[in-house]
UniProtKB/TrEMBL annotation:
GO terms for biological process: cleavage in ITS2 between 5.8S rRNA and LSU-rRNA of tricistronic rRNA transcript (SSU-rRNA, 5.8S rRNA, LSU-rRNA). Transmembrane segments: none annotated. The keyword rRNA processing applies. Gene3D superfamilies: P-loop containing nucleotide triphosphate hydrolases (3.40.50.300). The keyword Nucleotide-binding applies. SUPFAM superfamilies: P-loop containing nucleoside triphosphate hydrolases. This is Uncharacterized protein. Residues 1-23 are annotated as: Disordered.
Amino acid sequence: MAAGARATPTRTPPRPSSPAPRTEAVVPQDWASSVTLVSSHPTPPVVVVCGPKNSGKSTFSRILLNALLPRNGKVAYLDTDVGQPEFALPGCISFHIVDEALEDLLNPTLREAERCYFFGDISSKRDPEAYLNCLFHLYDYFVGKYRCDENKMLPLIINTPGWVKGAGFDMLVEMLRYICPTIVVQIRITAQSKNLPDGMFWLDDEQTGPEMININAAFHDALNRSLLIQKDSCGMRERRLVEYLKQCFPSNISLSTNKELAYALASLPPYQVPFSDVTVVHLHCEVPAGEIWRSLNATIVGLAISNVSDASRSIPYCVGLGIIRGIDVQKGLLYVITPVPLERLQSVDLLQQGLIEIPTTLLQVRGCVSPYMSTNVLHKISERDLYAGDG
Ligand SMILES: Nc1ncnc2c1ncn2[C@@H]1O[C@H](COP(=O)(O)OP(=O)(O)OP(=O)(O)O)[C@@H](O)[C@H]1O
């Protein structure tokens, strides 16, 4: 503006109000007819839902689950996305039995797993073999419990990750070959190059495979808005962990902000675990023997049970996650915060450390000093205790 010129007051035109966030799933015709087809299958089917990232696999799976419930009473669900789990915690691959309709068709909800393995990372990329091993064990668990007796057969939904290119595609192929589903639902988006190949891409030509259903991503609603909203995966993981950690407290305690939760966690008496009661496994890195205990400090660990009695081939399963609140190397004790009830915790003999981190929103709170969450740690550990060598 030139000196001396007087500014003419301008009025900002009112902004068009942004549409309210969508609260209900849109069920296009092809989705509705495939849901009807699957739910009227003569025997409880094993259904794999696949397709590229953000194409609607989770939304479709929820709609399908609700449609399968009335006839079967319960529906089994294999939660395979370690980065954006449907019911489980980040880093987990889990098997669930759902016996009530899902109310929220657009958002995942935290539910207790019937069986869970802690993979310890938010992508299967780092260790595809270990990832598939967990997945196959869960599928075997399902077959052993819910497929052998004709009267107890349950349908199973397997919602697959959206990583469908390169190594992600190879893993999907292995998954489909192992599981041999009854029905495969493939969701396709308009960007053809991002889709999976047509047909039974995981089988050799001469093999006969499952029933294939192709549907299109639900693309636009009545107001022509795109339905496929990019999800905030990182935020979702943080919120899921926050929700889980709130379970450390009775539901009548108000923990409406992360700050309140951070303070509450900092003043929660932790469980005291002797080193001799647990073995530590680092899932995705190697740690020098002398640093094993210290390396756990202020990390999230999978609390696992290794002495599995039901099958000799089984791998340690996870009963929940915990925060290692502090380590006292001299006394040989570690301090754990977890919502896992004491009676379950008593069977835990393995701490699995991966790459799942404590949400920063719980660490960066005024008065709570990272990494020990608080200056007033209940079992206050001095610098000397922490760094006096244990070998
Ligand atoms: N039928 C639908 N009605 C309303 N919203 C939808 C529908 N399908 C997908 N969306 C929206 O699009 C986004 C992606 O959907 P969804 O999470 O189901 O995809 P996804 O394929 O499981 O994603 P990812 O591969 O990342 O796990 C979500 O925000 C979801 O709410």
